[in-house]
Design brief:
Layout: E1 2-13, E2 16-26, H1 42-66, E3 72-74, E4 79-81, H2 101-112, H3 116-129, E5 137-139, H4 140-163, H5 174-186, E6 200-202, E7 219-221, H6 222-226, H7 229-239, H8 243-257, E8 269-271, E9 277-279, E10 281-282, H9 289-302, H10 305-322, E11 323-324, E12 327-328, E13 331-332, E14 343-345, H11 351-358, H12 361-378, E15 384-386, E16 391-393, H13 401-413, H14 417-432, E17 434-435, E18 438-439, E19 441-444, E20 449-451, H15 456-469, E21 483-485, E22 491-493, H16 525-528, H17 535-540, E23 558-559, E24 562-566, H18 572-578, E25 583-585, H19 586-592, E26 605-610, E27 612-613, E28 626-630, E29 639-643, E30 659-665, H20 678-681, E31 685-689, H21 695-704, E32 709-713, E33 743-746, H22 748-761, E34 765-770
Parallel strand pairs: 30-31, 31-32, 32-33
Antiparallel strand pairs: 1-2, 3-4, 5-6, 7-8, 8-9, 10-13, 11-12, 14-15, 15-16, 17-18, 19-20, 21-22, 23-27, 24-26, 25-26, 28-29, 28-34, 30-34
Helix pairs in contact: 1-14, 1-15, 2-3, 2-4, 2-15, 4-5, 4-7, 5-7, 7-8, 9-10, 11-12, 11-13, 12-13, 13-14, 13-15
Enzyme class: hydrolase
EC number: 3.2.1.-
Subcellular location: Endoplasmic reticulum
């Protein structure tokens, strides 16, 4: 077994000699025989590698043929997604800046996959077609990792090809100049008292300009502020302008200073002006994830020991409180022995890969195996899943984090088991996500329905990691060990640690903590695998049947009761579903057993059988309270109505600033027939009365009429949120992925307040958002 170092550089920094040693351990396949299956032959790996190239060509050519110069491809519609021309998707659209996002994000992937002609042509297109001064508000975080990172990674690749003397001889650092321009357009976001950046910036007008249409935000996520240092520092060191690294480092310093000193954990959302924590839940998934990643990788890329010491401090806290192998659970940063939720999000799938970089293989193998078992159960990782491995949020937008960790674990172990995992990813993408115009995100892993989106990270990251997984170093156009991956998998050279930009004294040295074997050195292969190539398998075996998939099935105890439900206008089936009761029509059960069903003579009576596995009880799902906040004069946010959510439609918990619109009553008010006032409803939030038909049917009609949201009002007189618990509206038993507008439910008393306001003032603007994000609540 041999160790393959990424690099080893030493430089002086203010008298301190820093030794940079980052690892990727690789093992020749001949040395390790897979006990979960035979080792792949070179021919088998080559076949899968060719398959990955064909898949990339299908996705990339679909974008270029049907979407370019738009930011993203809509693979079901076979056209480009242009912001402002398609229905607003909320925060998701903040990554779109009318700068050909997908092509910029894909540039260095083209080089890695040996598509050098396509790379050269793509660079020329970017130089010719892309403008960075658009009057558009974008996410600082997304624009940094996707566009700035993409330009820098492509510049590095162009420079490498040029130095070899065969290609890109015409190149004069144009991509670096574009990166520097974009860096300056992002800098206004740092105009805060704390040094933490605003979450959004207008590419043309910045933040404080009256024309910017942004700058009112007060909060940002930890990852949003802490995932800038790699790109900004690389830009500083490549361009010679230290301002970028200084601002990014300041943001990292603030996050470190604001950590909870007792637990050494950070929260998820922080106030950018005073540094107070807004959300104090702490984990390694969405909202925090890449902050930890960038601490570790900033040390690898820049050679600054401060970043490593901070990472080690946080990592000790993570392993003490958040890691509950094989799970990674969110806790309260001030009281870390308390779990704050019983589900995990898919973004944490990057963490085993980060643990590999640190050399902590055992928990990496455990968590990765848990994630693999979840993919076996659902084909893909759902956006969120419970501790019992049930789907919490069913979407899968073709995220690459699981493939990323698979690649790093294979590099660290050489175990062909991880090639089989990679092969399963390839097969499932082809079987369940491939469409004629590319690859489509999965709207719900339970039904397999598609969503009309192919995010740029699919081309930027997924194909990089899959191709590398099945490639030998000799088959790559560059020495991959000379580079570090950004969180968007862009390639930055670790030789940047030897350049001499700002090497500032840092006054936030971490407290002393107990170091382990790998705190300041590269992990030893002999320590990780002491003459025992089956090491990884012995760890995995304990989690092989974690989700029940693959285990011999035993007959489950099924208990049935006939349940007559009278249709009294209260939508009984929907009401029971909202309480978590699964219902199966009696006709389906009897027909399955070759029986017959007697016709019930009483109109409106449904005969259903309740099927329940005695060994499993439905997990209680917490209902996230929403609000309808009246924001137009004379209310100005002071009138706030408690509202219930829906299990379908736009997820308001993922929209940082909610959905704003003017309200308009539907005609008919129940929305159970053809909508008669479609002209008036266009671009407004519709009000509809509950009853006579299902919520989903109403939502579809109103969405088709042009409504941008729907507020359902209870038809039961006198009902109120003060007296009745909130519940989640559910669908009609059919797929609801076609419903994309936000939906909320008001009880009768709250609904009466809203309709009275509309009757008196005619033009009433409201904001739909989670209660915890209520405007002016402080």
């Amino acid at each position: 077994m041999r160790r393959n170092w990424i690099t080893r550089e030493t430089r002086a920094c203010g008298g301190l000699v820093v030794t940079l040693a980052a690892l990727v351990i690789s093992c020749p396949l001949a040395e390790v025989s897979g006990h979960d299956g035979q080792a792949m032959t070179p021919e088998e790996k080559s076949e899968i590698r060719d398959q990955i190239l064909e898949m990339f060509d299908h996705a990339y050519n679909s974008y270029m043929d049907y979407a370019y110069p738009a930011d993203e491809l809509m693979p079901l519609s076979c056209r480009g997604r242009v912001r402002g021309l398609e229905p607003n998707r909320g925060d998701v659209d903040d990554s779109l800046g009318k700068f050909s996002l997908t092509l910029i994000d894909t540039l260095d992937t083209l080089v890695l996959l040996n598509k050098l002609d396509e790379f050269e042509e793509a660079v020329k297109k970017i130089m010719r077609d892309v403008r960075l001064d658009n009057d558009i508000v974008v996410s600082v975080f997304e624009t940094n990792i996707r566009v700035l990172g993409g330009l820098l990674g492509a510049h590095v690749m162009a420079d490498v090809l040029k130095q070899r003397g065969q290609r890109m001889q015409w190149y004069r650092d144009e991509l670096l100049h574009m990166a520097k321009e974009l860096g300056y357009r992002l800098l206004p976001a740092f105009n805060t008292t704390s040094g933490l950046p605003y979450p959004r910036v207008n590419l043309r007008y910045g933040v404080v300009n009256p024309l910017s249409r942004t700058g009112t935000e007060s909060d940002t996520c930890t990852a949003c502020a802490g995932t800038l240092i790699l790109e900004f520092a690389a830009l500083s060191r490549m361009s010679g302008d230290t301002i970028f690294e200084e601002h990014a480092r300041k943001a990292m310093d603030v996050l470190w200073e604001k950590r909870q000193r007792g637990s050494d954990l950070v929260g998820t959302v922080i106030n950018i002006h005073n540094g107070d924590w807004v959300r104090r839940d702490s984990g390694v998934g969405a909202g925090i994830d890449s902050y930890y990643e960038y601490l570790m990788k900033a040390y690898i890329l820049l050679g600054d020991k401060v970043y490593l010491e901070r990472f080690n401090t946080h990592y000790s806290a993570i392993m003490k409180y958040i890691s509950q192998p094989p799970l990674l659970l969110n806790v309260h940063m001030h009281n870390p022995t308390v779990n704050v939720r019983s589900w995990m999000d898919s973004l944490l799938a990057f963490f085993p890969g980060l643990q590999v970089l640190r050399g902590d293989l055992k928990p990496a193998i455990e968590t990765h195996e848990m994630l693999y078992q979840v993919t076996k159960q659902h084909n893909f990782l759902p956006e969120a899943f419970t501790t019992e491995f049930r789907v919490h949020w069913g979407q899968h937008p073709l995220r690459p984090e699981f493939a990323e960790s698979t690649y790093f674990l294979y590099k660290a172990t050489g175990d062909p088991y991880y090639l089989k995992v990679g092969q399963s990813i390839v097969e499932k993408l082809n079987a369940h996500a491939r469409v004629p115009c590319g690859f489509a995100a999965v709207q719900d892993v339970r039904t397999g329905t598609h969503e009309d989106r192919m995010d740029s990270f699919f081309l930027a990251e997924m194909f990089k990691y899959l191709y590398l997984l099945f490639s030998e170093k000799s088959q790559l156009p560059i020495d991959i060990d000379d580079y570090i991956f950004t969180t968007e998998a862009h390639l930055l050279p670790v030789s940047l640690s030897t350049t001499q930009p700002s090497c500032l004294t840092n006054g936030t040295e971490p407290p002393a903590h107990q170091d382990d074997l790998f705190s300041y050195s590269c992990p030893s292969a002999q320590t990780l695998f002491p003459n025992n190539p089956t090491f990884a398998k012995t760890i995995r075996d304990g989690y092989k049947y974690l989700t029940g998939v693959g285990r011999a099935q035993q007959a489950s105890s099924v208990r049935g009761i006939e349940l007559p439900l009278h249709d009294t206008g209260l939508e009984p089936v929907e009401f029971l579903k909202s309480m978590g009761i699964s219902l199966t029509p009696l006709t389906e059960l009897v027909s399955a057993s070759q029986g017959s069903v007697p016709q019930d003579s009483q109109k409106g009576v449904f005969k259903l059988k309740l099927v329940a596995e005695v060994s499993q009880t439905p997990e209680h799902e917490e209902v996230v309270p929403l609000i309808v906040q009246l924001i137009s004069p004379p209310f100005l946010g002071r009138t706030v109505l408690m509202a219930g959510p829906a299990k379908f439609g736009l997820d308001l918990t993922k929209q940082e600033h909610g959905v704003k619109g003017r309200i308009m009553k539907s005609v008919p008010y129940t929305a159970c027939g053809p909508i008669e006032n479609t002209v008036e409803l266009q671009g407004h939030i519709a009000l509809a009365l509950r009853g006579d038909c299902m919520f989903a049917a109403k939502a579809r009609r109103l969405q088709e009429a042009g409504a941008i949201g729907v507020i359902f009002i209870d038809h039961r007189e006198g009902s109120s949120s003060a007296e009745t618990p909130l519940f989640q509206m559910v669908g009609d038993g059919e797929p609801t992925d076609d419903i994309t507008v936000p939906l909320v439910f008001l009880f009768s008393k709250e609904g009466a307040t809203l309709t009275a306001a509309l009757q008196e003032h005619h033009n009433v603007d409201v904001l739909l958002l989670p209660k915890e994000r209520q405007l002016g609540k402080d």
